[in-house]
Amino acid sequence: MSETFEMKPEYKNKPIRSYVIRGGRMTDGQKNAFDRVWATYGLSLFGGTFDQQAVFGRQAPLVVEVGFGMGDSLFDMAQAQPEQDFVGIEVHPPGVGRLINNAEKAGLTNLRVYMADAVDVLEDCFADQSIQRFQLYFPDPWHKKKHNKRRIVQAEFMQLIRSKLAIGGVSHMATDWQPYAVYMMEVMSVAEGFANQQKDYCFAARPDYRPLTKFEKRGERLGHGVWDLLFTRES
């Protein structure tokens, strides 16, 4: 009998985090996916440096997404772009279980997942200049001013992303909360080594590769905006 996977995110101790571990009921399919296919799709924070050739058996453009939620848009992208390799990082077990369950059903071979703290994974597992595109969609905006320090988008974090992006690689972020969009634009507009793909202080149209989520479609019907930021690593 195979060993049951313990459904807990991996992380190192640190005083401030950009997320909270949310509760949430897992379906039987999500639970069973961990036992059945985590060995195929799962990666460990403590597994050493990510080796794309060993994991995917090839060298292809590498896309890394932080905080993929329930994983539907990441799944759609991996399925629609088989010529690229995708790695998702998420701490919410139901979302991870859903994604790997769907990936197994679809027979995806270009997708892997870390269930761990994103900063830990980026610092410890990815070599410098190894990522072609970084994705951060609809992160927790931490609305209250006293909680702004918990926002994942900070100057220090974006320099970590810069170090992991290849020259010419892209940081793509999106949010549906306008004050956070303005905040992210302010951070990125002064971030060393990045250039806005649009004019200064201008947001981008949603690229075709980023699927519209159900949440986003509902927001559009209610008149809510979504802001995309596309910045290229120049140096």
Helical content (DSSP H or I, runs of 4+) = 25-40%
Low-pLDDT stretches are 15-20
Query: What are the secondary-structure elements, in order, as H or E?
Result: HEHEHEHEHEHEHEHE
Number of domains: 2
Gyration radius over CA: 17 Å
| Strand order across the largest sheet | 1-4-3-2-5-6-8-7
Quaternary: single chain
What's the level 1 CATH class of the largest domain?
A: Alpha Beta
Overview of the structural elements:
The chain has 235 residues and is α/β, with parallel strands linked by helices. It folds into two domains: 58 residues, Rossmann fold (3-Layer(aba) Sandwich), CATH 3.40.50; 109 residues, Vaccinia Virus protein VP39 (Rossmann fold, 3-Layer(aba) Sandwich), CATH 3.40.50.150. 34% of the residues lie in helices and 19% in strands. It contains eight helices and eight strands, in the order αβαβαβαβαβαβαβαβ. An eight-stranded mixed β-sheet has the order 1-4-3-2-5-6-8-7, sandwiched between helices. Helix 4 links the parallel strand 3 and strand 4. Helix 1 crosses helix 4 and helix 3 packs parallel to helix 4. The longest helix is centred in the N-terminal third of the chain and has 14 residues.
